[in-house]
Amino acid sequence: MMISAEERFARALLTRIAEPGDELLGRLIAAEGAVGALDAIRSEFPPDACLPDSGLPNSGPPNTGPAGSGERRVARRFAAWRARLPGAEPERLLAECDALGGRLVCPGDAEWPSQLDDLGNRQPYGLWVRGDQDLRFGCLRSVAIVGSRSATSYGVNVAAEMGAELADRGWTVVSGGAFGIDAAAHRGVLAADGLTVAVFACGFDVPYPSPHGGLFSEIARYGLLVSELPPGAPPTRSRFLVRNRAIAALTRGTVVVEAARRSGALNTARHARDLRRAVMVVPGPVTSAASAGCHALLREWDEAVCVTDTAEVLDLVGLIGDDLAPEKRGPVLDRDRLDPVTRDVLEAIPARGGAGTARIAVSAGVDLDTALASLGALSAGGFVERCAKGWKLRRPPPNS
What we know:
Blueprint: H1 5-17, H2 23-42, H3 69-83, H4 90-99, E1 102-105, E2 127-130, H5 135-138, E3 142-146, H6 153-168, E4 172-175, H7 181-191, E5 196-200, H8 213-222, E6 224-227, H9 237-250, E7 253-256, H10 264-274, E8 278-281, H11 292-300, E9 304-306, H12 310-317, H13 340-348, H14 357-364, H15 368-380, E10 384-387, E11 390-393
Parallel strand pairs: 3-4, 3-7, 4-5, 5-6, 7-8, 8-9
Antiparallel strand pairs: 1-2, 2-6, 10-11
């Protein structure tokens, strides 16, 4: 069911005047609706419902200061929003978005990913989307792959292969379009003709980083570009950190491929943990600073799970019975196929030299007839051969 045009205009305007994820505005929208929230912002004084003693605190620190400090913070927030209102026309914002081949997806639209509701009052006011795919459907089975911008060749290979393999299994990969791990994951999905979603910390028409303009064009053609900010909005450091919560919320789990101690990928992992999504970590070399953050997650978080391939990722986020990862085993040797008694007889033959049948039977703890039968089977299988002392291990041929 589509929302009204008035509601859509209000949400478009709110994405223009307020920063994403503002809890005060989110609670106001929950109480008054987007249209009512906009009317409250236009008023000279914040409504009583927004004041701290109403149970509707702002997104700043708790009100531990002098009486009235909370009200002043709310008033300043409203004043900042009102200052951005002049010249902000929702019709023009929507027209510009449409001209760029985009659309505004709002709560209540059929395309709205309902998992974003888990963010509560910090959920997006709306999402500016470019691409022909359906955002809600595409994110029903999705995994975030994030990591260091200064990725090593190891991390790039892992992210690209994991992205391609997830795409082959029909899963969507969500990331942030940054250098390093993000770009490798996006490219891996595109190479496999899969669906990938890039979530921006700026307008979807702002290629940031600029060298990825070609990559973003490819994602727009075959996947989706998504932002909480309207077209033309520039990126800021705080917007990247707030953006990460949307990446975590859109997906069933987050895979951290490489992350240093102060990597933004760890911020995404924290959001995933707080949202009770799967937190998956790819280990790296213990000598690599690029993986130090990954190893810290594995060591310090009970929620973090080590994954080494796509099967293990899907074992955590997929459907029980359909995506269960097979148990990993080492290589199966010929001797592994022997029955226990025959294997005991084989183990009783000395590593050097040979031994008679009676001695082998005593060492193996079997009777003479059983030893003879087992030795015959071992000889036919190429494990042992006759020698002057009785039986000895057969040496494998050179270069075998």
